[in-house]
Amino acid sequence: MLITRSNKKLFVPFVCFIFTTVMLSAHAGQLNIQLENDGIFAKDGNYTNGFALAWESMPELIQQHDNPTNMPKLFQLQYFIRLPLTQIQSAWGMKISQRMWTPDNITIITLQIDERPYAGLFEIESHTADYGPKFAQKNWLALGITGVKSKAEYIQTKVHQLIDSIPPLGWQYQVGEQVTLQLAYEIDALLFRSKEYSNKYMDKHQWEVSSYSHLSLGNFNTEASVGLLLRWGTRLNNTFGRLSSHFGHTGNTTQVENSNSFTVYSSLQFGYRFNDLTIEGELPYESHLDIQHNQAKAMLGMRWTLGNYAITWSLNSYTRAYNGDNKSWHSYGSLMLSCAI
Span of the secretion signal (predicted)? Predict the structure, then answer.
């Protein structure tokens, strides 16, 4: 028992060590830091915070039957979960992340059986990606842990102390410890792209409409969704597929030839969620919640890539996760900073 507890205490440091080792062993890539929080709307509750530290390799142009030469063998096994494409840029990467969910009122110390429970998730994830001017595909494999070992309670408590905000008082009732395994796949297809226009304010700008579908399988959640993405900006063919509905993912744009670009985008997504551990996970009390299977999400954002740096910012809204939620929509802000290394 003592050995087991010691190993669990080392889980998060071990994951961080693996991430750093893989990143430093690569020759080049793009490092991303993402922060998501609902505080921009002056509220806590539901999906309340997310943090991701991610890295993606420099894209490599390959032919249909070739494998990326710089991709490690372990990632090449994951790379087989894809459709064969010609003349695409392939990349691979890793991510460590933490997300947390809380009830709307975090000042209540007693049970809230009719509210979303406290839940945290810590993950390490690998991905491979193919990017083309009209077609893109990505897949992700993630290992995570919920409960106390996710460190969500610790992070939220410390941050609220730092900013002198209301302390969360109900984490003793959080979703129990559970190891999670997730596999996800997303495909993007261009529907229309306009020709390039120039004016005195911006050169070679255009707009496009694309569709995407996302499938996530695992014991944390299983969900299928489809969506439409509208983008307006410059050099859209060079950055197609870099945006994603998958948490914490952004493609490498700082190391794409002629990568200086500006993009405004908006998306609308509909899906069906089969299970959700943040709602249906093991609790120290009997919850009265039922998962809301039908889901929708809307997003409005911008991305600016300038040389070796990029910034991505968005406002996101999503429908209720459980039946009985008195709010039909919830929102949060997202900020990602990227740089070439």
Answer: 1-28
Using DSSP's 3-state secondary structure scheme, residue 3 falls into helix
Tokens of 102: 């809380």
- CA distances in angstroms from 328 to 46, 130, 147, 324, listed in the order given: 12, 36, 27, 10
Q: Which position has the token pair 């509220």?
A: 43
Q: Is the pLDDT of residue 323 over 90?
A: yes
Tell me which DSSP letter residue 113 carries: T
Q: Burial-class residue 27 by CB neighbours within 10 Å (0-12, 13-18, 19+).
A: exposed
**Alpha carbons 27 and 113: distance in angstroms, whole number:** 51
Domain map (residue ranges) of the chain: 2-340
Say what the pTM is. Answer: 0.88
**Partners of residue 33 on adjacent β-strands:** 53, 337
Please tell me the class of the 2-340 domain.
mainly beta
Question: In degrees rounded to 5, what are phi and psi of residue 240?
Answer: -65, 135
- Residue 232, pLDDT > 70, answer yes
Contacts (Cβ under 8 Å, ≥6 apart) of 10? none
Closest C-alpha to 296, from 330, 265, 323? 330
Cβ count near 77 (within 10 Å): 11
The answer to whether the beta carbons of residues 340 and 30 sit under 8 Å apart is: yes
Q: Classify residue 17 by its DSSP letter.
A: H
163 Cβ partners below 8 Å, 6+ apart?
Answer: none
Q: Of 130, 235, 121, 224, whose CA–CA distance to 180 is shortest?
A: 121
Query: CA nearest 62: which of 50, 48, 49, 76?
Result: 76
Q: What is the mean pLDDT of residues 303-326?
A: 94
Share of the chain above pLDDT 90, in %: 69
Residue 262 reports pLDDT greater than 60: yes
Q: Can you tell me the mean pLDDT for 57-85?
A: 73
Sign of CA dihedral 189, 128, 52, 12: positive
